[in-house]
Write a structure and sequence with these properties.
By secondary structure, the chain is mostly beta strands. It contains no helices and 9 strands. The strands form 3 sheets. A 4-stranded antiparallel β-sheet has the order 3-2-8-9, with no helix packed on it. A 3-stranded antiparallel β-sheet has the order 1-5-4, with no helix packed on it. The chain has a two-stranded antiparallel sheet with strand order 6-7. The protein is globular. The mean pLDDT is 82.
Length: 78
């Protein structure tokens, strides 16, 4: 079974910027690191934490790169 994937592309970063991302639960607890996507400066998250599908809820992502920080939310509905 495939879990939904979040893919984020912070467009205002330079093409060679190192980009990192993390996902947190609604209380600020760490859930997972995002990994590099196939397209430069994109990050993906597979909806898992430690290899296990996470429960439905609101999650926050934080992306850092090129001296900038981006945040956003994603809702997982089960």
């Amino acid at each position: 079974m495939r879990v939904g994937i979040l893919e984020v592309a912070p467009l205002s970063l330079s093409s060679n910027a190192a980009v990192t991302g993390r996902v947190y639960d609604g209380m600020g607890g760490f859930i997972a690191d995002m990994r590099a996507g196939l397209v430069p400066n994109t990050l993906v998250w597979d909806g898992r934490s430690n290899g296990r599908a996470i429960s439905g809820g609101v999650y926050i992502y934080k992306i850092q790169g090129d001296g900038k920080i981006y945040t956003g939310t994603v809702v997982i509905a089960r």
